[in-house]
Amino acid sequence: MNMIFKHGHALLIAVCFTSATLSAVAQKTENPQPFVIPALREWQGDTGTFIMHDKTVLVVDPAYRNELTPVANTFLDDLKKSGAAKQVSIRTGTPAKEDIYFTLNPADTAKGKESYVLTIKDFITIAAPKSIGAFWATRSLLQILEQDKEFRRIPKGVAVDYPQFAVRGFVLDCGRKFFSLSFLRNYVKFMSYYKMNDFHIHLNDNGFKGFFGDNWDSTYAAFRLQNDTYPNLTAKDGSYSKKEFIELQKLADQYGVNIIPEIDVPAHSLAFAKAVPGVGSKVYGLDHLDLDNPLTYEVIDNVFKEYLEGPNPVFRGKEVHIGTDEYSKKEAEKFRSFTDHYIRLVESYGKKARLWGALTHAPGTTPVKSENVTMNLWYNGYADPKEMMKLGYDGISTPDGWLYIVPAAGYYYDYLNTKRLYNQWTPNMIGKDSFPENSAQIRGGSFAVWNDHVGNGITEKDVHHRVFPAMQVLAQKMWGGTKTTLSYEAFLDKNKNIGEGPGLNMMGKVRSKDSLVLQYSFNQNKQDPSGSGNAILANKNAKIDRQKQALRLNGGNSYIQTPIEGIGYGYTISFSMNPDKNNKPDAVLFSSPDAIVKLKQQSTGKLGFSREGYHYNFNYSVPVDQWTHIVITGDNKGTSLYVNGVLVEKLEGAKRTFPNGKQTAKVQTLFFPLQYIGDKTNAFKGYLDNLNVFNTVLPADKIKELAK
């Protein structure tokens, strides 16, 4: 224990990382270890609880004002978003009762730079060797508070926490599917909430030629970042400006996350061949760069330089990924030379290089630099981990047989086997090879989402639904390693109470005392047309028709705004409607930024929905000038329509068939939009009543009852 003197007062702060810190309170152990993800590495319970009050003060040690004030500011913002404290403030000085105190102990590095000690007494002390450790402590406190929103209790005790692995990562393929900037920004915060610190963004890729008429010209390819040297390189259907990408990295810095940008060459490189004719291989296919053409090196050099050069480069972080995956084995020597060139190019700008392991697949005599270079070890046949480590490479465990999500593809995993991962895997396992958990060359692990099947209907919401359970489990395994204190079943029981982080609800979970979460019955006898007390937030050109006792929407800019933006998978939406005769194509029933439900889907005249550029319709047209009862249910597999209590159609399990006979899934899920009944530009004309929203898929007999 260290004694720190501030303004003439002696303040005892428990910051020692040794077992002596914990044994001091061993005689009065009562509080069990609080549940957080990942679990605290060490815990010594005390008696009683700390109550988080609205006026709790975050106190920063003046000696470390510059390092810790940003941490306290982010914590304050998150506390307000989570509703845990409304009037919390920040000051420097010494703590009083009910405060949270931030300090550093730079000399105490025994558990690593990301470690921290959390001492919970009459006030809370967060002490760490570096500010990142203090930040991780705030994530633990936020998770504890999330599980006790009503009373905001934090059990007293001392936690010593530290990661087993330095790299705790996630790879997102943005090349074959565009993810909005807001999604990426939310993911920085989401990953940070689980102390996952490595966000690998795969910026370019292409589809498989076989799904595009076996024609390279029509095969989908995209490069997602603004490029001024080759403007045609930047994807037209979704990209990030340099400014946006820089701001994303700044946000990640704030939340303790490293952004690892990847430019994937010389395979997976059709976007370059389309932007600059001549650099694609005529022998191995245009998704392979021509390694005999000097223009190839000129173009790829220029692309990397655009993001690496200058005093304020676009790629701000310490590491850049150069791809180098799955090139033709016949050109191993040229591939090795290309790989070495781009490792050294990246290093010439003061960065460290990452690459995909491929050198077992591409054996040869051409040397490839290994010192201070990190490989994603994904398939032992492409890069044997033992062989690569002998060569001097550091590794990030990314085994495809454990950690690859390829949504709705029918191979690898649609959803990871989280039970198997929780019980059997840690980053020291790469394929069938196991290494000591403290191996210096295994930097950590990373799981991945690959969107191989371009255009299969998968949305951001669908991807997140797959990632969320994996993130919770793998956060535990990458932080805690082999040490687990709970069975998988106990972990599943408890993790339901921890979400995505303050202000985030990408899963669209809507909680209530029972399954009915929103209800509007537009009855003239009710001042507030809400059967369950759900107030209308806004109203535009929509009114309650007293004669019809229903909501009247008048087309165009006509809507009411509800308190719920949308609801995620596992829902039932029930309502009655009476449309006018003269509704236009794409007339909107419900809308939000995520999706639109339409009375008339485009020119079909049929009930349908649109999201992320995909347009689907049921084989049903709603009759005009009469009341019809509609129920729509949805889960992560598909969307169903019931009319007057009878199932009309289930959009699920559809396939797209290509001329060559190949098939891919056609995913027809719907994250149901509820922000607006109606729309700001093209609302339907007619009446709507008795809207009921349930956070479960009701059985058929219950749906029949709703229609009565």
Describe the structure.
There is one protein chain. By secondary structure, this protein is an alpha/beta fold. The protein is 22% helix and 31% strand. It contains 14 helices and 41 strands. Strand 22 and strand 23 (433-434) form a beta hairpin. Helix 7 runs parallel beside helix 8 (332-347). The termini are far apart. Belongs to the glycosyl hydrolase 20 family. InterPro entries: Beta_hexosaminidase_sua/sub, ConA-like_dom_sf, GH, GH20_Enzymes, Glyco_hydro_20_cat, Hex-like_dom2, HEX_bac_N. Residues 1-26 form the signal peptide. Residues 34-162 form the Beta-hexosaminidase bacterial type N-terminal domain.
N- to C-terminal separation?
70 Å
**CATH second-level architecture of the largest domain:** Alpha-Beta Barrel
Structural class: alpha/beta
Assembly annotation: single chain
Domain Beta-hexosaminidase bacterial type N-terminal: 34-162
Active site: 326
GO biological process, one term: carbohydrate metabolic process
Family: Belongs to the glycosyl hydrolase 20 family.
Topology:
Layout: E1 2-6, E2 9-13, H1 19-23, E3 42-51, E4 57-60, H2 65-82, E5 89-92, E6 100-104, E7 116-120, E8 124-128, H3 131-146, E9 153-161, E10 167-173, H4 181-193, E11 198-202, E12 204-206, E13 221-223, H5 242-254, E14 258-265, H6 270-275, E15 280-281, E16 285-289, H7 294-308, E17 319-323, H8 332-347, E18 352-356, E19 374-377, H9 385-391, E20 394-397, H10 400-403, E21 404-405, H11 418-424, E22 429-430, E23 433-434, E24 442-449, H12 460-480, H13 488-495, E25 516-520, E26 538-540, E27 542-545, E28 550-561, E29 566-567, E30 571-579, E31 588-591, E32 596-598, E33 608-611, E34 614-617, E35 628-634, E36 638-643, E37 646-652, E38 654-657, E39 663-666, E40 672-673, E41 676-694, H14 700-706
Parallel strand pairs: 4-5, 4-6, 6-8, 10-11, 10-24, 11-14, 14-17, 17-18, 18-19, 19-20, 20-24, 21-24
Antiparallel strand pairs: 1-2, 3-9, 7-8, 7-9, 12-13, 15-16, 22-23, 25-41, 26-28, 27-28, 28-41, 29-40, 30-35, 30-41, 31-32, 31-41, 32-33, 33-34, 35-36, 36-37, 38-39
Helix pairs in contact: 2-3, 4-5, 7-8, 11-12
